[in-house]
Design a protein that fits this description.
This protein is an alpha/beta fold. The protein has three domains: 1-54; 62-176 and 257-308, 2-enoyl-CoA Hydratase, Chain A, domain 1; 319-426 and 492-600, Alpha-Beta Complex (2-enoyl-CoA Hydratase, Chain A, domain 1), CATH 3.90.226. The chain contains 22 helices and 20 strands. Strands 8, 11, 13, 14, 15, 17, 18 and 19 form an eight-stranded mixed sheet that branches. Helix 4 links the parallel strand 3 and strand 4. Helix 2 (94-106) runs parallel beside helix 3 (124-138), helix 12 (342-353) runs parallel beside helix 13 (372-387) and helix 16 crosses helix 17 (495-501). The radius of gyration is 28 Å and the shape is globular. It starts with a helix and ends in an 8-residue tail after the last strand.
Length: 608
């Protein structure tokens, strides 16, 4: 009886406990939900308040400041934002930054430009485009002044356009010539007993070299030298013209590495004088007629662009769509900003094709390539746009190689920047075989029952038989031949002629023009002019794709969507942990992310 009473008491207590626990959890969940909503509202409110404060007033005697703290995407905000930075400002794209500089040229309130950057993380074509914009700004008679604690080669290339180049007394100019270094992994893979089965077409298709060799092939060394040399020639030519130093003398300065000695940097005229930043500001004040005690109004280029913005005449109905194809090409719809996802781009191009107000398309390509399937899907949609009567003109940025060239090859006209790298018409596939790794390193073995000869085909735990290897190589060969046909059709050549200049080889812009891969050299403005001419447009306005989100919008998306939040936080953590090796991780991840064969540049372009 006592036992029965105890049992009844326990069940009743447990019942009450469960009810209490459930009520507590529900209350906690509701409270957290309410706090989340309040938090989002607070973030939005703070951001709106910040935006109000950021609407700067550009007063008389202002100076436009460019600092290049962030990489510059082709399109504003088309890159991943820091998920933990609530104060993240918009990151201006190249076209918007050039527009801001052009606006400042005509703005009577802007008296000059102040360049303030030691490190510039830009591609060669991007740097040249900005440098041209700065030269154009100077043609108005306004000044450009540069100051930095030290200058990397990329930073100095931009700084050299300035009327005055100033540097910290303890600074250096990293002026030593170009080099390109490739990392090789074969030794590591051998130690791990990982067998890489590699299939490719083209003797220059060296994307797979780091996984099958421990040094450069002669062919790869040749092609690197042949595009590195013209890039360096542009670098020397532009600096020589701006600094009024003969090219031969500049090459000797680099050979002696004079810039690494502060005194020699001044003696060789790389730098005009040493100074501290306050002294530079005093000099700028004198230039614009301010007293020493008066405040120098420095306006950041991002704030200036927000204040002035792009001017569009919405009474003009005819439009040219500028489509930015930036980053690696991947399958699917989900990925971080700054990648080309075929699902997203096919849908976007289909919308453009059906818009009667859009009369032409300019495709701005800055991509090393990626998935062959995704590249094919995007090219197909561009072809349908052409069939619908919308001319397609391509403008190439820093890199338009492999898959990046594939999506461009059917355009009515192709323009490359003088510092563009393009070509790399070739195909490869890589499959790691982990059988020995699992057995020798972990003691894990496998066994299989098959119903057909090729039932286990594609498994990474068994090596390929000769017949299986032939199946894959045949597929790679077929895709390469199809690549040649696509390019031949677009460039009005025979596949045999394209094969002679293909084979995975990378070309500089001037050579690409010489061999017919591009029509002419020029920037986005030339591509727009060509598109307008093809579409018989005297007046038009531009509309840009894809739509990009501001830092705040990306932050809210990360908070509200679990996958985006997890991906963003993981990417951020890996960037912090891996540092300069993060691009390497991204490359390997990109190869794993895509299905099937790849159209990708031979390696990640790294010029120091």
């Amino acid at each position: 009886m006592v036992s029965s009473q105890c049992q009844t008491f326990n069940y009743s207590s447990m019942n009450q406990f469960v009810k209490f626990l459930f009520a507590s959890c529900l209350g906690t969940a509701l409270a957290l939900g309410l706090l989340f909503v309040i938090g989002i509202s607070w973030v939005v409110g703070m951001a709106e308040s910040a935006n109000e404060q950021q609407k700067v007033h550009v007063g008389r005697n202002s100076v436009l400041e460019l600092d290049f703290k962030m990489p510059i995407p082709e399109k504003t905000n088309n890159l991943p934002m820091d998920p933990f930075d609530l104060d993240q400002e918009d990151v201006l794209g190249l076209s918007d930054m050039v527009a801001a500089i052009k606006q400042a040229k005509e703005d009577p309130d802007i008296k000059g430009i102040y360049l303030n950057s030691s490190i510039v993380m830009l591609g060669k074509a991007t740097s040249a485009t900005l440098r041209n914009a700065l030269e154009d700004f100077k043609s108005s008679g306004k000044f450009v002044v540069s100051y930095a604690h030290y200058y990397t080669q990329g930073a100095y290339y931009l700084a050299s356009v300035a009327d005055s180049v100033w540097m910290s007394p303890q600074g250096v100019v990293d002026f030593r010539g170009y080099s390109s270094t490739i990392t090789y992994y074969k030794g590591l893979l051998d130690k791990l007993d990982v067998q890489m089965r590699i299939f490719y077409c083209g003797k220059y298709k060296s994307a797979t070299e780091p996984f099958r060799a421990d040094r450069m092939s002669d062919e790869n060394r040749l092609q690197i030298r042949e595009y590195l040399t013209p890039l360096y020639n542009i670098f020397i030519r532009d600096i020589a013209r701006s600094r009024n130093i003969p090219e031969a003398e500049l090459r000797q300065i680099a050979e002696r590495f004079d810039g690494f000695d502060a005194a020699k940097a001044v003696q060789s005229r790389l730098v005009d004088r040493f100074a501290f930043e306050d002294e530079v500001f005093s000099m700028i004040k004198q230039k614009i007629g301010l007293e020493e005690k008066e405040k120098l109004n420095r306006v950041g280029v991002e704030d200036y662009f927000k204040s002035k913005g792009k001017k569009s005449n919405f009474s003009i109905k005819d439009k040219i769509a500028v489509v930015y194809a930036e980053g690696e090409i991947h399958d699917g719809n989900i990925g971080e900003p700054g990648t080309i996802l075929d699902g997203k781009y096919v849908k976007m191009l289909r919308k453009i094709r059906k818009d009667p107000q859009i009369k032409a398309i300019v495709l701005r390509v800055n991509s090393p390539g990626g998935s062959s399937l995704a590249s094919e899907n995007i090219l197909r949609e561009l072809d349908l746009c052409k069939k619908a009567g919308k001319p397609v003109v391509v403008s190439m940025g820093d890199v338009a190689a492999s898959g990046g060239y594939y999506i461009a090859c059917h355009a009515d006209s192709i323009f490359a920047e003088p510092a563009t790298i393009t070509g790399s018409i070739g195909v490869f596939g890589m499959i790691p075989i982990l059988e020995k790794t699992m057995r020798n390193k972990l003691g894990i073995t496998f066994d299989t029952v098959k119903t057909q000869k090729y039932s286990a085909f594609g498994s990474t735990v068994y090596d390929f038989s000769p017949e299986e290897s032939q199946i894959i190589q045949s597929r790679v060969d077929w895709i390469y031949q199809d690549f040649l046909k696509k390019v031949a059709e677009g460039r009005k050549r025979s596949p045999e002629q394209i094969h002679e200049i293909a084979q995975g080889r990378v070309w500089s812009a001037d050579k690409a023009k010489e061999i017919g891969l591009v029509d002419d050299l020029g920037g986005l403005d030339r591509a727009l002019a060509a598109a307008a001419k093809l579409a018989n447009l005297e007046k038009y306005r531009t509309t840009e794709y894809p739509q990009t989100k501001s830092g705040l919008e990306q932050f809210i998306e990360q908070l509200t969507k679990k996958k985006e939040r997890d991906d963003s936080v993981r990417a951020w953590a890996l960037k912090q942990e891996l540092g300069e090796f993060y691009p390497l991780y991204k490359t390997v991840k990109g190869i794993r992310q895509n299905n099937g064969i790849l159209f990708r540049m031979p390696y990640d372009l790294s010029i120091n």
